[in-house]
TrEMBL record, chain A:
PANTHER family: B9 DOMAIN-CONTAINING (PTHR12968), B9 DOMAIN-CONTAINING PROTEIN 1 (PTHR12968:SF1). It comes from Geranomyces variabilis. The keyword Cytoplasm applies. The gene is B9D1. It is found in: Cytoplasm, Cytoskeleton, Cilium basal body. The lineage of its organism: Eukaryota, Fungi, Fungi incertae sedis, Chytridiomycota, Chytridiomycota incertae sedis. Keywords: Cell projection, Cilium biogenesis/degradation, Cytoplasm, Cytoskeleton. GO terms for biological process: cilium assembly. This is B9 domain-containing protein 1. Transmembrane segments: none annotated.
Automatic annotation (TrEMBL), chain B:
Keywords: Cell projection, Cilium biogenesis/degradation, Cytoplasm, Cytoskeleton. It is found in: Cytoplasm, Cytoskeleton, Cilium basal body. It comes from Geranomyces variabilis. The keyword Cytoplasm applies. This is Pleiotropic negative transcriptional regulator.
TrEMBL record, chain C:
InterPro entries: C2_B9-type_dom. It comes from Geranomyces variabilis. The gene is B9D2. GO terms for cellular component: MKS complex. It comes from the Eukaryota. It is found in: Cytoplasm, Cytoskeleton, Cilium basal body. PROSITE patterns: C2_B9. One of its GO terms (biological process) is cilium assembly. Transmembrane segments: none annotated. This is B9 domain-containing protein 2.
Length: 197, 544, 175
């Protein structure tokens, strides 16, 4: 081991989102990483602008459909410093919009694990919202404009305690990233095929 | 210690600090540059040096003196109107914060010849000399400034400053079952929920008469005021080390400027915290390295250092893991696959410890196919694991033979197809689709197969993979009529272990690894270098 | 001692007859493998998707193993459950995959199957919601003869996993 830590450099944008039944959305993102990780530069939380979808279809999501996206093009610029691959960062997204009476409600949560190899990546992150516990509660929530939300949006980035969450997936967010690593090999980690002679 | 990502002069600029935010100090210099009597003149066009100097001197005399203060984090400086307000505060009424401020203000007034006592004596804020004051975290101040261009969602005024924003990370409740109400809520969740953060605002009291047009810059007025309060700078310090300053610190020469009517003020913000010393950097790094060293040694104590030993020289050990994933497009919908790994024992060994005999030949479960997007697919998910040892390099490779059979409701077994796959030489992940064929027997055989079951089968499975031609000059399978059948999806991971792949740490300035590799160019380069060195030595000796 | 990091996400499932699913997953490794950091098992959320072609779980997987052998390379075993209108969880599929030994990012598709019994058992299980389950789930990932088992093919579970290795070069391993 010849280096004290390795760095992960992230440059990209939260490009757009496609929600089949919702429009006029904005997105809040935050970064979650392990205990051996630290954010060196850049802002680890942010909120995009509010966007109404365009009239011309252009976005091909995971299911290869042409759709009308809400475009944000929100820049992401982060640098991490770490000593352990455990706790590789995740990007936690929360998309909000306005309901039929103009109240601010949640439209989707999602978690994206950053790629482990350097290069340019396009990621389609599926989004989901928590469901009300019964249909009466669901109806009341819809009327009052208080749809159920997670108390802490970082819940979608953790592994424990997920079995109690009953969710409904709707929508996809498209993220393009350019990832670079520095000193990862000097630190001893190998993330490319180990070739023989 | 600061690493700035500057945006524009009037937007929020983010900085990062490694030190505690209590050590943060900021210098602010406030200067009035224009008045109703002294017009703002940015350009002195057509005037000579003397006239410019004279104009500047006149300005300095007419305008009030500039004010400079060093403010540390959390320091509370009171504005003139606050001094009056807290002085007149009735004890026993109002919040504990008001009582605390009252006590502080009384203390300041008690000091003789202080600015505060002069204000109390005057009874009004007009003519107050000190202009810069601060508002800290405890005063819930909501900034509706024209500086930032964010939407209103970003700057939501805090409803309950004491509790809401200092929320810790989601608590792990390990001892009791986590219920749904712990995670999901229907009450509104603040959108700017972050790690804990503290706020501070640097304000200025500007002794200017209010006029109708300049009311939009005002945030707070009380009947004590004869002038304006305006927010010069907002600082938010987050637990994660992020510090957001609106507007940013002045890095260039151009100061920030605010205007109220005809009165124009300029102010600059500079970082005045003590910089990190060399010893501090060293000590921080050494702590870090010590922690890492302890972690490594703890890890090494858990597991011994001995890895599985390398195979003997020139031998290569193959670890092959994978699965038979599915079979599709067969004429029958209930299938099972018999797999058999044939290893040429002249040059290969089977590792007895890890590969039991049943791994060499086994049968999958009987799987009923399902229609997925128009294709009938039967999934198996059947694991394959072998450890083989290659003793010497030969053309014969181990091969996996697959026989797909079907069984139906009346328990008739039929052969559906044969396929084979040579174990790859290359390490890595291999996914492939193997197409199969089945032999067609005579007409009678086919009729019998349709009614009773039982098909024409191969006697020797190795007939499928006749790569060696059985010692004949022409490798021929002519004469066998077959029908193409479905496909099998197979995935294999191959890991090789050999002494030749071992990467030994390079020692010495010039490693002789290139000689071992037999790289001609490297050897000739080394030879040329050696020759040049000898020549240089000889030339040097000749010169003596 | 060599280390293996398995970092990724259990993204979701597709092609099942019903799309209201959850998954119970675990990572199984041989003897000689030591779990250093992370959870080797978990249960995902239950998703009832708007687009019934794909069920979303987005469950993070982050595991750190230390090992002294290549044999016993970790395997990911999944059990898919379907939540029906009464709120019961019915077993919908078993599946497994070897975690790839090649370092880098991989997208895996795990085929699943569920055991079936005779026709009458199938009928009663569809009425009472008691699907046949395996007594010992080792047969899902351990190589053994499975001839006595009859299964029905089910959908696919999708996983995105990245493998990062450490200290393997010194032991003469190519992967």
């Amino acid at each position: 081991m010849t280096s004290n830590f390795f760095s992960l450099l992230l440059n990209g944008q939260i490009e757009s989102a496609y929600f089949p039944s919702h429009d006029n959305l904005y997105c809040k993102f935050s970064v979650v990483c392990g205990a051996d990780w630290a954010v060196v530069s850049g802002v680890e939380e942010g909120i995009t602008q509010q966007s109404i979808s365009s009239p011309t279809p252009s976005f091909t999501g995971q299911t290869d459909t042409l759709a009308r996206p809400c475009v944000w093009n929100f820049p992401l610029d982060l640098a991490f410093k770490a000593t352990n691959v455990y706790g590789w960062p995740q990007l936690i997204l929360a998309v909000y919009g306005h309901d039929w009476l103009g109240r601010d409600v949640v439209r989707g949560y999602g978690a994206v694990r950053l790629p482990r190899t350097p290069g340019i990546h396009t990621i389609y992150a599926p989004m989901f919202v928590p469901l009300a516990s019964s249909w009466i509660n669901g109806f009341l929530s819809w009327v009052l404009g208080r749809l159920p939300e997670f108390r802490d949006s970082r819940f979608v980035g953790q592994s424990e305690g997920r079995e109690v969450a009953s969710v409904r997936s709707q929508g996809t967010v498209k993220i393009t990233l350019s990832l670079g690593t520095k000193d990862l090999e000097r630190f001893g980690y190998v993330n490319r095929p180990l070739k023989g002679k | 210690m600061f690493d700035a990502t500057q945006q524009s002069q009037h937007a929020t600029t983010f900085y990062r600090t490694i030190d505690r935010v209590e050590n943060f100090k900021i210098t602010i210099k406030l200067r009035k540059i224009a008045d109703a009597n002294v017009p703002l003149n940015d350009e002195f066009l057509g005037l000579d040096e003397g006239a410019i100097a004279l104009a500047k001197k006149r300005r300095r005399l007419l305008l009030p003196k500039p004010e400079a203060t060093v403010i540390s984090w959390g320091e509370r400086i009171f504005s003139p109107s606050e001094i009056l307000r807290h002085h007149n505060h009735q004890p026993g009424k109002g919040s504990p914060l008001a009582a605390k401020y009252h006590a502080l203000v009384e203390q300041l007034i008690a000091q003789p010849n202080s600015e505060e006592s002069r204000i109390i004596a005057a009874g009004t804020t007009k003519g107050a000399r000190r202009q810069i004051f601060t508002l800290t975290d405890a005063d819930a101040y909501a900034s509706q400034k024209a500086f930032t261009t964010s939407t209103r969602e970003v700057l939501v005024p805090r409803e309950n400053p004491a509790s809401a924003m200092r929320r810790p990370a989601l608590l792990r409740k390990r001892n009791r079952v986590i219920g749904e109400e712990d995670i999901i809520t229907t009450s509104p969740v603040p959108r700017t929920q972050k790690c804990g953060w503290e706020e501070m605002h640097i304000m200025a009291y500007l002794d200017v008469e209010q006029t109708g047009s300049s009311k939009e810059n005002v945030s707070e007025q009380s009947h004590y005021d004869a002038g304006f309060h305006i927010c010069l700078c907002s600082i938010q310090a987050y637990d994660s080390g992020l510090v957001a300053i609106t507007p940013g610190l002045n890095t260039g020469k151009k100061p920030h400027r605010i205007a109220i009517g005809q009165n124009v003020y300029e102010y600059t913000l500079k970082n005045a915290s003590a910089p990190i010393t060399e010893e501090d950097v060293e000590s921080e790094w050494s702590i870090f390295q010590e922690l890492y060293r302890q972690k490594r040694s703890a890890l090494e104590n858990i597991l011994t250092m001995t890895f599985t030993s390398l195979p003997a020289s020139k031998h290569i050990r193959f670890h092959i893991t994978g699965q038979i994933s599915w079979a599709e497009r067969f004429r029958s919908k209930t299938l099972y696959i018999r797999q058999c790994l044939m290893v040429p024992l002249e040059s290969w060994n089977i590792d007895e410890n890890t590969t039991p005999a049943q791994a060499m030949m086994s049968t999958t479960q009987v799987s009923r196919a399902r229609d997925s997007h128009g294709v009938w697919r039967a999934t198996f998910g059947f694991p394959l694991e072998w450890v083989l040892l290659r003793r010497d390099k030969s053309t014969e490779r181990p091969a996996l033979y697959l026989t797909v059979c079907s069984v139906d409701l009346w328990n008739r077994h039929r052969l559906e197809g044969y396929g084979y796959f040579n174990i790859p030489e290359e390490e890595g992940r291999h996914s492939m689709t193997i197409n199969t064929w089945r032999p067609l027997g005579s007409l009678m055989a086919r009729v019998r197969e349709y009614f009773i079951g039982g098909s024409t089968e191969l006697e020797d499975l190795r007939y499928i993979n006749m790569s060696n031609g059985h010692g004949q000059k022409v490798s021929s399978m002519h004469g066998l009529s077959v029908e193409s059948s479905g496909a099998i999806r197979l995935t294999l991971n191959v890991v090789k272990q050999a002494e030749a792949y071992q990467v030994k740490p390079v020692t010495g300035k010039e490693s002789h690894a290139h000689f071992a590799k037999g790289d001609i160019k490297a050897i000739s380069d080394a030879l040329a270098r050696a020759r040049a060195r000898v020549k240089a030595l000889q030339a040097g000796r000749k010169a003596e | 001692m060599a280390e293996v990091h398995i970092v990724g996400t259990l993204t979701g499932a597709s092609d099942f007859p019903s799309s209201r699913l959850s998954c119970r997953w675990k990572i199984v490794a041989g003897t000689g493998w030591r779990l250093l950091e992370g959870d080797a098992a978990g249960v995902t959320q239950v998703d009832a998707p708007e687009d019934s072609r794909f069920t979303v779980w987005s469950h993070p997987i982050d595991i750190h193993y230390g090992t002294r052998a290549v044999t016993g390379w970790p395997k990911l075993q999944v059990q898919v459950f379907r939540r029906d209108w009464r709120g019961r969880d019915e077993l919908y599929g078993y599946g497994f995959t070897h975690i790839p030994s090649t370092p880098g990012d991989h997208t895996l598709a795990i085929p699943t199957w569920r055991p079936v019994l005779s026709f009458w058992d199938e009928l009663s299980s569809s009425i009472f919601g008691t699907a046949a389950v395996l007594k010992n789930t080792d047969v899902v990932h351990a190589p053994a003869d499975r001839f006595r088992l009859t299964t029905r093919s089910m959908g696919t579970v999708h996983v995105e996993v990245g493998v990062v290795l450490r200290n393997f070069e010194g032991y003469g391993v190519a992967m």
